[in-house]
Amino acid sequence: MESAPFSLSELTSVSNRSLAQPLPSDERYRQVRAFAQLVDQQFRTLKTVSAYAEQLALSPNHLNALCRRLLHQTASDVLHARIVAEAQQLLARTNDSVAAIAAALGFDDASYFCRYFKKYVRQTPLAFREFSASAHE
């Protein structure tokens, strides 16, 4: 599989790039950067690509096409990756219950959060926490 022209972190982290290599000013890149910033700010409350697309005045299909073209992943993949990354950090760095973490991430049902997490990580939240704790000992 060919690599993405830019990673999500490259698109959102302007300070890490030298002046000799500015971020592309193309409208497509601006829109994907704006999407990434919105996801970072609102992933706890907004769970659908449609909600982000509406804020960006784009159709969900167009936003998805932009993400596929520039990041080689769907807009949903970007959103899911952000949610899972936050869940992993909270599980590894806090003693909060799985239910509390689920609620903090905007999940109404802790059991649904557990299924969601396992779908993407292939471990339950508690198994991930135990593995993470043993890796840091």
Distance between the termini: 36 Å
Q: How many domains make up the 3D coordinates?
A: 2
Order of helices and strands: HHHHHHHH
Low-confidence stretches: 13-23
- Helical amount: 55-70%
Determine the strand fraction and express it as a percent band.
Answer: under 5%
Give a quick account of the main beta sheet: strands, pairing sense, barrel closure: none
Helical stretch count?
A: 8
Radius of gyration: 17 Å
Mean pLDDT: 87
Q: Tell me the number of strands.
A: 0
Structural class by helix and strand composition: mainly alpha
Question: Can you walk me through this structure?
Answer:
- The model is unreliable at 13-23 (pLDDT under 50).
- The protein has helices at residues 8-12, 27-42, 49-55, 60-71, 75-93, 98-104, 110-121, 125-135.
- The chain is elongated, with a radius of gyration of 17 Å.
- With 137 residues, the protein is mainly α.
- The longest helix is centred in the middle third of the chain and has 19 residues, at 75-93.
Topology:
Layout: H1 8-12, H2 27-42, H3 49-55, H4 60-71, H5 75-93, H6 98-104, H7 110-121, H8 125-135
Helix pairs in contact: 2-4, 3-4, 5-8, 6-7
Quick recap:
This protein is an all-alpha fold and 137 residues long.
